[in-house]
Amino acid sequence: MQKNIGIADRTVRVILALVAGILIATGQLTGMTAIILGIVGAVLLATSVVSVCPLYSALKISTTKKQG
Question: Structure pTM?
Answer without folding.
Answer: 0.86
